[in-house]
User: What shape does this take?
Amino acid sequence: MSDEVREEAEARGGEEARLPLSEHLEELRKRLIRSLLALGIGAALCYNWAEDIYRWLLRPLLSNLPGNSRLIFTELTEAFLTYFKVALWGGFILACPVIFYQLWRFISPGLYRKERKVVLACVVWSTVGLLAGMAFGYFVAIPQVFSFFLGFGRSVIVPMPSMKESLSLILRLLLIFGVMFELPLVMFLLGRVGILTPVLLRKGRKAAVLGVLLLAAVLTPPDVVSQLMIAVPLYVLFEAGILLCALGARRGKATVQA
Assistant: This one.
């Protein structure tokens, strides 16, 4: 083996990076089995507290329901399947460290050292953004959304949300707000590869302000305080994205010049 090939192998993780296909598939099988075992154990643990987890997830809705209203299920298996879904999602969250570790152990031997650092940084910051977005949605935005929609027709009708549909809705909303908080990281990466520029984003500030205000007006009750609670953090994300895009563009140029 020449010095150049040896250095490349070491940079990619040594001899492990050059295993034959059959051994790669065997390694993948082991990682998948361990991940599925972790998921199964986590789901089994969460099923014991599925009702408590469900009640906690639906707190933004339950706190806004009138006193004469309650959740219902309209199919014989709906309650069981809803709690089973809660257990699966809870098990996945508990198993995430194991799953990510198994995935990392599988892909890291094929990456250069610089690529490993980039991937790890993206995983860390995307996780932080996702959790921050979900927390913002759960504690700030989603209660306002439910308060707005449950305010219709209270004088003549009684809301009785389905437990299955309510869970699906709040999970979708949590995912939406989590993804929205990934915006700065996405703008950084797009700036680094040259697809977005800070100049272009600064020119779009007025459109961003209008879009954020319209979104806040749709999602919240018609009062200024509630709208600002949604609009201000979202616009701060946009401004943070501009700064990160500029940083990414500078790093991208430095990498090309190097």
